[in-house]
């Protein structure tokens, strides 16, 4: 394997690179940007973390002997009282969760309508634009509800947008150049959200406790596998919750004039 010792790799871009088992010693990671990375079974000792912004799922993350995951979860629940509703355990809870999703997104969309429409295509700090975020949520619903639960092999609309690190897949759209209007995307969103609404309204304990039928054809989730219905629904709720927070954050930046379409070096696992 190659070794980089006393090399200056500043500004390098690593995308879809496997660094399993790699070793980093005395490295300077100032201004590094890492997105879509899997850091598992890693040991990081002797760190100096200053002005570091971490967004992600923290499971078994120990800092100076303290598992910080539960602490972060408790603080997020305190900040966002509706957040706990995104972890329902029964059909009534899923209906309440979807009520909450609809209510919160209604407010966010109304806020977006007060922004210059051109800015809704603007990236903030290299993240998806507001329009792209809505397109991705369409894709998430199509994956886990239409394909996963309802068994439709290829449910994707041409405006659907997979996550950036998903490999190019025949039949799955990924058009980052198209610029649909807010109303055009919202019409598509309303259609997909109405399907979720119908599903949760008719949800029973028996169906919720079961598994999906294996789906056919290439796409996501993978063909030939079954998934717990509960996990499919929880995945959609998590996508809706997290991406709305991202959208609210970026709308604040756009309203303040601090939006930027620039991107820095990224690492994708």
Automatic annotation (TrEMBL):
Pfam families: DinB_2, Pentapeptide
Span of domain DinB-like: 102-246
InterPro entries (alphabetical): 5peptide_repeat (IPR001646), DinB-like (IPR024775), DinB/YfiT-like (IPR034660)
Protein name: DinB family protein
Organism whose genome encodes this protein: Kutzneria chonburiensis
């Amino acid at each position: 394997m190659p070794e980089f010792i006393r090399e200056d790799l500043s500004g390098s871009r690593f995308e879809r690179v496997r660094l399993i088992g790699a070793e980093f010693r005395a490295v300077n990671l100032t201004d590094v940007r890492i997105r879509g990375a899997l850091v598992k079974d890693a040991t990081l000792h002797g760190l100096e973390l200053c002005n570091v912004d971490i967004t992600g799922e923290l499971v078994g993350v120990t800092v100076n002997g303290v598992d910080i995951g539960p602490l972060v979860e408790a603080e997020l629940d305190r900040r966002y009282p509706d957040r706990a509703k995104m972890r329902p355990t029964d059909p009534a809870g899923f209906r309440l969760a979807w009520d909450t999703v609809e209510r919160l997104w209604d407010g966010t969309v109304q806020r977006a309508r007060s922004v210059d429409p051109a800015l809704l295509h603007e990236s903030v700090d290299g993240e998806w634009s507001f329009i792209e975020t809505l397109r991705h949520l369409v894709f998430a619903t199509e994956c886990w509800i239409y394909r996963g639960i309802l068994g439709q092999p290829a449910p994707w609309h041409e405006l659907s947008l997979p996550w950036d690190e998903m490999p190019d897949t025949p039949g799955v759209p990924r058009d980052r150049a198209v610029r649909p209007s807010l109303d055009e995307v919202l019409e598509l969103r309303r259609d997909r959200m109405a399907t979720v609404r119908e599903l949760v309204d008719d949800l029973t304990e028996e169906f919720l406790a079961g598994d999906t039928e294996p789906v056919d054809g290439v796409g996501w989730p993978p063909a030939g596998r079954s998934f717990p219905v509960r996990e499919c629904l929880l995945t959609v709720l998590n996508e809706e919750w997290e991406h709305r927070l991202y959208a609210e954050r970026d709308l604040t930046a756009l309203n303040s004039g601090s939006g930027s379409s620039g991107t820095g070096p990224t690492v994708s696992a």
